[in-house]
């Protein structure tokens, strides 16, 4: 009996809370806004080119990642059907394996990560409708400071421990992204933002000095949940 | 007066002789070094030092290399050979190599002498900085001297941990009076009849 009463109370609460969202359609309303988001970044497997200077060798290692954090914020202006915004974000992926076939090296139990602090200029088209849910799509470009951490791994074939599979360094490169999402209006000022972004960079070069150079392009799938505040 | 001159001349002669002896000594030392030998070791040990480079992952280059070694031995390192130390960590950078060869067993450590099998022929001691193991194995070629072509010898590795010589393999002396064998452990290797 108590359970039914509690369930009814919860259902009522949820229903009341949903009233603004359901009743409030989201017509185009120009104005400034800012937002924050938090989510997951899943870097794509990538090929890392390593050039050694002494002895002179080159390696193309396949690197795999586990997802990491995706956090950031934006500030921009909504023109009605188009938004222009600046974005700062940090995305990170954990390196899980490094494989180099020609050397027969397979590093497992890898401890290292790649991160990108990005500053982007984005443009999004909002598809306003009579519902409180506004789909959008767009993209942006800017710069990213890509950081490759000192990376440690154990060669699964020979058991050799390498404390410097990659050495720590960073590089600032061109970055781009494209994505889509939906804005769910909670009231006239506040809305939820559920978004997906495909994020990529141009070739980042690490440790260009002695003893080697490491080059890679970071590409990642990113999902985030955010809050947007309109002024 | 004549006596005084004689004494001075004798002193000068003595000084010249002393200087000459000193010069002879340093000259011998130089030739010793030029010969690739370590002055602190007996002349029955031939020693050559050199370097080998490994990359950030501990690998040698993409072409085979020869380690600088005494004339009685050849040490061949295959391309992309991985060097690791005693704790299994990869060894990166410029590594100093030191290859010793001798036909005189008394030039190894006392423990190795006492535990050595009979009929010693020669030994090769491989030292490559902190590296202890090579993947794949290096190929060591040794001139076994008086051992006849076609004769079979046994190659032992000296285990410093246990103080024992461990039989690794046999090898047949070729027509050039040499044997070749693979070496993964960078340590003391003995050849016995």
Characterization of this structure:
Chain A has 1 helix and 15 strands; from the N terminus they run H-E-E-E-E-E-E-E-E-E-E-E-E-E-E-E. With 231 residues, chain A is mainly beta. Chain A is 10% helix and 69% strand. Chain A has an 8-stranded antiparallel beta barrel. With 193 residues, chain B is of the alpha+beta class. Chain B contains 2 helices and 11 strands. Chain B has helices at residues 2-34, 110-114; strands at residues 45-54, 65-67, 73-77, 82-85, 93-102, 120-128, 131-143, 152-159, 164-172, 178-185, 188-192.
How do the strands and helices of this protein lay out in sequence?
The complex is a heterodimer of chains A (231) and B (193).
Chain A: H1 2-23, E1 31-43, E2 46-53, E3 56-66, E4 68-78, E5 82-100, E6 105-111, E7 113-126, E8 133-148, E9 151-155, E10 161-166, E11 169-185, E12 190-201, E13 204-206, E14 212-216, E15 219-230
Antiparallel strand pairs in A: 1-4, 1-15, 2-3, 2-14, 3-5, 4-5, 5-6, 5-7, 6-9, 7-8, 8-11, 9-10, 11-12, 12-15, 13-14
Chain B: H1 2-34, E1 45-54, E2 65-67, E3 73-77, E4 82-85, E5 93-102, H2 110-114, E6 120-128, E7 131-143, E8 152-159, E9 164-172, E10 178-185, E11 188-192
Antiparallel strand pairs in B: 1-5, 2-3, 3-7, 4-7, 5-6, 6-11, 7-10, 8-9, 8-11
Assess the beta-strand content of chain B as a share of residues: 35-45%
Number of DSSP strand runs of chain B: 11
Structural class of chain B: alpha+beta
Order of strands in the sheet with most strands of chain A: 1-4-5-7-8-11-12-15
Approximately how much helix is present in the residues of chain A? under 10%
Based on the model shown, name its key terms:
heterodimer, A: about 230 residues, mainly beta, eight-stranded antiparallel beta barrel, 1 helix, about 70% strand, B: about 190 residues, alpha+beta, six-stranded antiparallel beta sheet, five-stranded antiparallel beta sheet, 2 helices, about 20% helix, about 45% strand
